[in-house]
Design a protein that fits this description.
There is one protein chain. The chain folds into 2 domains: 194 residues, Orthogonal Bundle (Fumarase C, Chain B, domain 1); 280 residues, Fumarase/aspartase (Central domain) (Fumarase C, Chain A, domain 2). Helix content is 55%, strand content 6%. The protein has 19 helices and 9 strands. A 3-stranded antiparallel beta sheet has the order 4-6-7. The longest helix has 33 residues. 52% of the residues are buried. Pathway: Amino-acid degradation; L-histidine degradation into L-glutamate; N-formimidoyl-L-glutamate from L-histidine: step 1/3. Belongs to the PAL/histidase family. It is an enzyme of class 4 (lyase).
């Protein structure tokens, strides 16, 4: 059971809640703070105090005063008019993460909402009811308005959800779990949609997937080193110590552990003095990719526990302040930076694929084919990897440098952070396919060298992967192999991968 305080949610917590269905409960102290904060809103309404989005219109319409009898209609109209998302829906895991993060943000007690609203979001999380939320339509400032409006529809018993493997009307899933839709009171519609939870949720899932893929990429690179008889000295601890980057040092340490009993890697001067950069510089390149991930962890953790609503109600001082905490610039920059780390994981892997299949660069059968000439073997797998890497380069263009004014130029600078996060996730899927292709080629290469000579860690990884994709005995439709292995990499348990690659000290 994870207790939501609004301030203490971790990436590990999100992983347990979203991927392992751990239950969530609202902190008692925050429950009381929410009640106090809501009382302030009610008293200010009674005093006829003008408050943005509570008894005024929105955006450029903020100068329009709303009568007391229309306050509930104002919130309903807000959600209906702003539910303009288009395109394919977000993955259920991202949708569930959005609900969790919105509940966590509101739980801090600065948004003027009722306890019942936060509890309704927690109920959705615990019942694994995931709103159907279109991916496109957010500018990443004024909050993720369009995506979060589709989330808000479900709270009201409208819209659609994913539940128990099916897409259905939200009321069907709510009633099936004994849940009642809410009628949104003053401020609550705005509180639901004024935030960065679409981009942050997408970023969190991207982080969790990239962390696992980096470990898988390291282990696959170790197998490639065995297939190409890479030089062990490139992983020497002293070499990396004097460079000083901790992530580089850690990658080299894990790779040394994974290859410690390998009889396939070579020593300096045994076959050649130096390897190509795609083998020799694995710790330097992947270490830098880990740096982008660590930066993302810091910023995502902050944003997961941030108050990103507008306006904010400070109960102690009876203040209602309109600001811009909904602006997604920190996450936009974070996701654009993360995209560089993803791109380079794929770039260097594709270069190793080329070294595995190119007969001019190794002493293996041409294109790893059992019958070169008559059969093409892995030739076109490298083409696919190159295409995926090239596509990543276009997706890596920073979304955060773009801005288009909206709301009659009232909202004249926006972050495009949700686009950046979505592109990061698309790049991860491309990169996972590149790693799958490298793994297919590396497994074929070590078979030519002798599987019995592999290191214990890489041989265990080889044995598991061989249950998914068979050895290449003749040409076949390799697309099926690539997709099957890609799915296996995505579904593999992260802790097993990390244990296998050697999360050890003193190596």
């Amino acid at each position: 059971m994870i207790v939501l305080t609004g301030k203490s949610l971790t990436l590990d917590d999100v992983g347990r809640i979203v991927f392992q269905n751990e239950q969530v409960v609202l902190c008692d102290r925050q429950r009381e703070k929410l009640k106090q904060n809501r009382e302030i809103v009610e008293e200010m309404l009674q005093d006829k105090k003008v408050m943005y989005g509570i008894n005024t219109g929105f955006g450029k319409l903020s100068d329009h005063r709303i009568s007391d009898e229309d306050l509930e209609a104002l919130q309903l109209n807000l959600i209906h008019s702003h539910a303009c998302g288009v395109g394919e829906p977000f993955d259920e895991k991202i949708s569930k993460t959005m609900v969790l993060l919105r509940a966590n943000a509101l739980a801090q007690g600065y948004s003027g909402v009722r306890v019942e609203l936060v509890q309704s979001l927690i109920n959705l999380v615990n019942a694994n009811i995931c709103p159907v939320i279109p991916q496109q339509g957010s500018l990443g400032a004024s909050g993720d308005l369009a995506p979060l409006s589709h989330l808000a529809l479900v709270v009201m018993g409208e819209g659609e959800v994913f539940y128990q493997g099916k897409r259905m009307p939200s009321m069907d899933a709510l009633q099936g779990n004994g849940l009642t839709p809410l009628i949104l009171k003053a401020k609550e519609g705005l509180a639901l949609i004024n935030g960065t939870q679409a981009m942050t949720a997408t970023g969190v899932v991207a982080y969790l997937e990239m962390e696992k893929l980096l470990h898988q990429g390291e282990l696959t690179a170790c197998m490639t080193m065995e297939g190409l008889r890479g030089i062990r000295e490139a992983l020497d601890a002293d070499l990396h110590r004097v460079r000083g980057h901790q992530e580089q040092i850690d990658v080299a340490k894990r790779m040394r552990h994974s290859l410690q009993d390998s009889k396939l890697i070579s020593s300096q001067g045994e076959f050649r003095v130096q390897d190509a950069y795609s083998l020799r510089c694995i710790p330097q390149v992947l270490g830098a990719s880990w740096q982008t991930l660590h930066y993302a962890k810091e910023k995502l953790t902050t944003e997961m526990n941030a108050v990103t609503d507008n306006p904010l109600i400070f109960s102690e001082d009876w203040k209602v302040i309109s600001g811009g905490n909904f602006h997604g610039q920190p996450i936009a920059f974070t996701m654009d930076f993360l995209k560089l780390g993803i791109a380079e994981l794929a770039n260097i892997a594709e270069r190793r694929i080329e070294r595995l299949v190119n007969p001019q660069l190794n002493d293996l059968p041409a294109f790893l084919s059992p019958n070169p000439g008559l059969e093409s073997g892995a030739m076109i797998m490298q083409y696919s990897a190159a295409a995926l890497v090239s596509e990543n380069k276009t997706l890596a263009h920073p979304a955060s440098v773009d801005s288009i004014p909206s709301s009659a130029n009232q909202e004249d600078h926006v972050s495009m952070g949700t686009i950046a996060a979505r592109h990061a996730l698309a790049m991860l899927q491309n990169t996972r396919r590149v790693i799958a292709i490298e793994l297919i080629c590396a497994m074929q290469a070590v078979e030519y060298r002798g599987v019995e000579k592999m290191a214990t860690s890489t041989r265990e990884f080889y044995n598991k992967a061989r249950k998914v994709v068979a050895s290449i005995r003749k040409d076949r439709v390799f697309s099926t192999d690539i997709e099957r292995l890609t799915a296996w990499l995505k579904e593999s348990d992260a802790s097993q991968v990390m244990n296998q690659i050697g999360e050890v000290e003193n190596v």
